[in-house]
Design goal:
Helix content is 31%, strand content 35%.
Length: 162
């Protein structure tokens, strides 16, 4: 009985400790609070926002690719190179609204055209009250699974500890 109690106590301590670590540096930003909306309304609005922003990101990449020989180009300041990429997937479950609905965030996987490299890009767009969106910034979050930064609990970018 004492062993069982000790095991449960240790499990609780470790789980709380683990939550503290993961909560400190989530991999991606998280949405703001629902501001008093019902859970059903919030879920419906979140799905609508996700659908709308997924479409926007896909159209943004396709439009940019039209101007660059059918490939999406991103300049990498760290490696001082231009990546030629094609979209693999927008992670719809990671799309969220930030700054009280004024900013949209999405994470997408892209692969190097003619190469083996995979990049995870973070897309940020402004979202005006009339529903219009404009891309504000695109960041290289990961190259071949290695993150360049993470986020804190307030959605601010943080360096990755080595």
């Amino acid at each position: 009985m004492k062993r069982k109690a000790a095991f449960i106590t240790m499990s609780l301590i470790l789980s709380v400790w683990g939550l503290g670590i993961s909560g400190e540096h989530p991999e991606h930003p998280t949405s703001s609070a629902s501001n008093g909306q019902s859970t059903k309304d919030s879920a419906a609005q979140q799905k609508s926002n996700q659908d709308e922003f997924e479409k926007f990101v896909k159209e943004y990449i396709a439009s940019a690719a039209k101007n660059t020989g059918s490939v999406y180009k991103v300049h990498d300041d760290v490696l001082n190179k231009d990546w030629k990429l094609e979209l693999v997937k927008v992670h719809k479950n990671k799309i969220c609204m930030l700054n009280e609905g004024k900013t949209c965030f999405a994470c997408a996987d892209l692969k190097e055209v003619g190469g083996k490299n995979k990049l995870d890009l973070d897309f940020y767009a402004s979202h005006s009250p009339d529903g219009k969106m404009s891309m504000e910034k695109v960041l290289i979050h990961k190259v071949n699974g290695k993150p360049r930064f993470t986020y804190d609990s307030q959605n601010a970018m943080c360096p990755v500890k080595k």
